[in-house]
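User: These chains co-purify. Model them together.
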Amino acid sequence: MKILTMKFGGTSVADIDRIKAVRDIISDEIRGGWNVVAVVSAMSKETNKLIDLAKQVGVENLVDPEYDSLISTGEDVSSSLLAIALNSIKISSRSWRGWQLPIRTDSFHSNAKIEEITTDQIISSFKEGVKVAVVSGFQGIEQAGRITTLGRGGSDTSAVAIAAAIDAERCDIYTDVSGIYTTDPRIKKNASKLKKISFEEMLEMASLGANVLQTRAVELAMRHKVPIRVLNSFLKEEGTLVCDEEEIMEKNIVSGIAFQKNESQLTLTNIEDKPGVAAKIFGPLASSGVNIDMIVQSNTETGLTNITFSCPEDELDIAKKAISKAKEKNVVSYERLIENKNLAKVSIIGIGMKTHAGVAQKMFETLSQENININVISTSEIKLSVLIERKYLELAVRSLHDAFGLQNL
Amino acid sequence: MKILTMKFGGTSVADIDRIKAVRDIISDEIRGGWNVVAVVSAMSKETNKLIDLAKQVGVENLVDPEYDSLISTGEDVSSSLLAIALNSIKISSRSWRGWQLPIRTDSFHSNAKIEEITTDQIISSFKEGVKVAVVSGFQGIEQAGRITTLGRGGSDTSAVAIAAAIDAERCDIYTDVSGIYTTDPRIKKNASKLKKISFEEMLEMASLGANVLQTRAVELAMRHKVPIRVLNSFLKEEGTLVCDEEEIMEKNIVSGIAFQKNESQLTLTNIEDKPGVAAKIFGPLASSGVNIDMIVQSNTETGLTNITFSCPEDELDIAKKAISKAKEKNVVSYERLIENKNLAKVSIIGIGMKTHAGVAQKMFETLSQENININVISTSEIKLSVLIERKYLELAVRSLHDAFGLQNL
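Assistant: Joint model of the two components:
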């Protein structure tokens, strides 16, 4: 049995016309001989309407089983409507709520993790002639029998988890963009759509702000080796295949330029350089919920050291308070606390970087030619990030995009 | 443990302000020491919105599991919202969907019958300190695990069935009227609100058109001896208690005047009077789906007989066709088929009629004084119905209401 999992986001099922368009997209795959598991989000605007109702009746804590029960009804409406729409054109379909399969999760309401998915009922129904199993995304059931939701972008995770559990050949994620681009086309008009991208690259892209696929979903797909195809439900285009590195023959040295706009940095000067000092600094920051990203330590001639780190600009004040408090308590000692706002992070990402030298060199040269100064550098196997002044962000993205020839991918 | 079941209809939870009003009504009962099971309908308009969506995606058959799944989400939204509203004022509450208890039903989608309700979880939660169990009305789950709905007015049935299963002391049905009246106040302004009415009387009232309580719910309440109180969620008033005859000390001879506006009658003349002839006439009518109500047979001097029966006026043509067809096939023989449209049925209902003579006499006299001719009469232990010309309906209701002193109940 050839099984394809397809996920349709909120804008793809926004109204009756869109649901009928989704019905037709699925119908095409059925003609291609597939059995389809279609995972659906709530009709766009519906979830916000439900959240608004909850707030009006005085919901206090979004980590509330009632809140999950309420919000999950949005997906239930979509899944039944799509099943009705498919049945009406004689494509045998049935809907499943999370609890009906079941999709078992832990009990962390509003941000639950999937623990186990039973797909026996879907398989049985396929054997009995059902062609499309429509599943409510974003939801599950915990041990005590209460409905849970999976958090932001949870329907992506539902779709990939079901694809893994049912051993689907692929998970097609239908959204309102046509695929994964080499960078944000709003900044670089001739950004290219990637035909293929590895899971690892996609993870770096997603966490850096290319908001197409949820990180959790990509991680899950990578772990279970489920290829994901990102497609536009509004346009019939090829899309982008997110797959295992081994399935990519021609590896790009650089596949994309990601960026994060609102960064800031803090430097602590003349810290006593001895073991454990970093832990003493970053402990209080972690407890305060500050998301530290890049960290650089540089020794001075006096035997003391400077530490610089970056964090989102809206967390800068919290970070400063936490550091100052630690100083007052004599947990850490430093001379000065220097803040630097209005920064941005630009990253070049590519699995080909593993085997190609000179990529960093090319990046630094390109930025230097544009007189863009680099504050902090951080590297991983497939990523190279720099912190620069925010006003140069667009220029940096465009010049790097050109330098690495990404318009021709 | 003192358990009260309360049911709130669609207009009672129509919007956030109404849901907060319901929250406060429940809060009053909690202060009175009750544990409450609150059964809720969908916010008014929501069910129609969902039905409309289903039609737009091409639902063909309303007896469709998908349709039930879809429609039932309306009640799920209400139950979660009410639980959130109660929790927000520190009244410990939780919601249950039909499948969560479970409320087991047969598999007749869109018109399922409740087979069994398990209330263990509610009882356990009460023992753990939960004060209000909010249950989605109108829904259940069938053996194969699919959601069912109970048909029109199903939330009344849910509430009474849960009250019976959990051995609640009473089932309060909150609606948009203040109770059961001696007749329709739109016809007789000084109609009285009844303090008490027996189940039997209520059944006669309901099936005759006093559309406050669903007949199925009243039958269930009667069978399980669950007292029902009908209350107005918009006004703090005493309401009407629907209870066992034995709990009514002062039995009214007549409790109410019910009526049905659009009746018609058919008379078949000179039928051969022999056993089985009635079956031959009413068999084809039943097969055609005609709802026959009153039937009168009168012998003529010639040894032949006339049969007159009444049916809703919009079923008259179907009835005529069915009878004519039966004549063509020589199943029945009669001389003439006389139709009589523009009729109405007026009924006086009262458990006191069982032990009081002269009620019929008084009814006939009253109508005679107004020069209202009676076409057909039918009687039961607690009801006396007459078929009259429709133009006299209001006059008949008013004069009977006065004659039996119902304005002073």
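The domain at 3-176 of chain B is CATH 3.40.1160.10 (Carbamate kinase).
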